[in-house]
Amino acid sequence: MKKKLLLLLLISTLFINSCSKNIYKGQFFDLFDTFCEVIFYSTSEEQFTEHALELQAEFEEYSMLYDIYKDYEGLNNLKTVNDNAGIKPVKVDKKIIDLLNYSKKMYKKTDGNVNIAFGSVLKIWHKYREEAERIPTIEELKIANEHTNIDDIIINEAESTVFLRDPEMSIDVGSIGKGFAVEEVSKLIESKERDNILISIGGNVKSIGPKLSGKPWSVGIQNPDTDSEKPYILRVMLDDMSLVTSGDYQRFYMYEGKKYHHIVNKDTLMPSDKFVSVSVLASDSALSDALTTALFNMDFEEGSNLVESMEGVEAVWIKKDKEIIFSSGFEEYVIKE
Predict the structure, then answer these.
(1) Which of 111, 122, 159, 302 has the fewest CB atoms within 10 Å, i.e. is most exposed?
(2) In angstroms, rounded to a whole number, what is the distance separating the alpha carbons of residues 271 and 93?
(3) How far apart are CA 249 and CA 272, in angstroms?
(4) 307 and 209 within one domain
(5) Full residue range of the structural domain in which residue 141 is found
(6) Full-prediction pTM beyond 0.70?
(7) Three-state secondary structure call for residue 20
(8) How many Cα atoms sit within 13 Å of 173 on the Cβ side?
(9) 317 in a domain, yes or no?
């Protein structure tokens, strides 16, 4: 499954310690149902292309493994696991086992506000969002919600298998999969002693070290008001940090004048209407990804208490009335303009 790699030369030449390096940007398409960008320094376009293709191959593997919609020849992915719910255990790659184990930990940490077993409910909303003609009934959603017990995901690490005990349940890792993949690929990059890299996949941004100059990367948080001439609500500094944003403007449809987006509350079974955007800063991209979903669904006080209880984690909430609320240390990362 080959993807086209588009290379863009952003800056012609930088001189660092008398060594000439260029900065390049590569874009990969159709990964995690979005596109991926990588930015880093290299002595030549050929060397950049070689390293960028290595990253593309890694992300492509994670994208296929965590896919719940498509089958791939010779590969057991999460769709395979879902298709065999209530039937039999499925032997899977360790990358799936690791993600599921981490997801179970985040379920406990967020009091169930991140639940990869919520797929039966999310599947209904996905169908209605694709049709964009009506909304599901609460009865339909309640029936699906009876099949969202995360303890029914049975992981056998010794056999490297996953079994869904409930035949009506399904896994959906949209709240955590991209962030987990970014974090794991970042660890691989660091093991090869490469740094000064910026990775972005659909709202998940991770910096491995600062820019080559030693200055932090500047990353924008998208303005939830997509009609505004101002594309970013603010910009933050990243240096060995991740920034993940979830918003109601990313995947949604309108019905009878109301917006129905993809972040669904576990209690109401309806798209959460507390905020329009939540962003999380942390060193771990998987953690940031999971927390954006959790915080989007929590009341502000509950979410704020969770963030303040976690070392090295900061967040910013944007309310429907456009009020911006920062956690205690977030503003230290904001670039003053």
Answers:
(1) 159
(2) 32
(3) 12
(4) yes
(5) 78-164
(6) yes
(7) strand
(8) 33
(9) yes
Confidence of residue 12 (pLDDT cuts 50, 70, 90): very low
Q: pLDDT tens digits for 200-214?
A: 998 899 999 999 999
Kindly tell me the sign of the dihedral angle through the C-alpha atoms of 183, 187, 192, 194. positive
Is residue 68, in this structure, part of any structural domain at all? Answer: no
Residue 238 shares a structural domain with residue 304? yes
Per the domain annotation, does 46 fall within a domain? no
Give the residue, 282 or 337, on which the prediction is more confident: 282
Place of tokens 């109601």: 248
Q: Which residue, 240, 184, 226, is CA-closest to 66?
A: 184
The Cα 270–Cα 169 span in angstroms is 18
Q: How many helices (H) and strands (E) does the chain have?
A: 8, 16
pLDDT score for 10: 36
CATH code, domain carrying 271: 3.10.520.10
Is 258 in contact with 252 (CB distance < 8 Å)? no
Provide DSSP, 200-246. EETTEEEEES--TTSPPEEEEEEPS-TTSS--EEEEEEESS-EEEEE
The rounded distance, in Å, linking the Cα atoms of 236 and 221 is 8
State how far the Cα of 278 lies from the Cα of 274, in Å rounded to an integer: 10
48, amino acid identity: F
With contact defined as beta carbons under 8 Å apart, do 104 and 150 qualify? yes
**How many residues make up the chain in this entry?**
337
CB count within 10 Å of CB 95 equals: 16
Q: Are residues 226 and 324 in the same domain?
A: yes
